[in-house]
Amino acid sequence: MVGKLTTIYGPMFAGKTTEIQNMCMSAIEEGKNIILAKYKHDIRYTKDATIINHDGNKLDKNDNLYIVEISDSSELLDILNSDLYISNHTMADIIIIDEAQFYTDIAQTIDIFKTDARYKNIDIILAGLDLDANCQFFNRDFNYLIASSDIAIYKLSKCYICNATAMYTVRLDNMHNQNSRIKIAGASLYQPTCTMHHPSMI
Ligand SMILES: [Zn+2]
Which CATH superfamily is domain 5-155 in? Predict the structure, then answer.
């Protein structure tokens, strides 16, 4: 059995982190060991070894779930060569990399993961934004991995204006067409939008 590559992608507030949490809980129930790489500079919700979704639901580290903070692709490779890779003296079954769009050279790093015989049976799950707030590829490496993954899960959100299906993210202080009728929901700087309500698409 060869490990598979799964990607989870889409705009902000689409439930990508919740998807990761659900995958972790299912895997833990099956007795699998997981390493979850969290982006070091992502302290939106917590600095602790836990993963929190936008609704505040937490999944803490435990005997089967090792959460490590990293800041670049070279630190991902360090995981391969360190004791962090071993959980309870057992090889990890799954490696999850959240916020995959932040890592340059991530395609090359994942290729190493996939081709190294020692790690061939390990499932890799990447989650992240496919597009930036201008509807451009956030990181072409990640888009390449989405296209080449065994399973690609496209998470969609709901437009913060009209509630239609949202596949884009808008940065609210950077809108070209400010509209006083637009009510900014919540304190977030970013919101999901449909095609009709993204300034780059109008
Ligand atoms: Zn809309």
Answer: P-loop containing nucleotide triphosphate hydrolases (3.40.50.300)
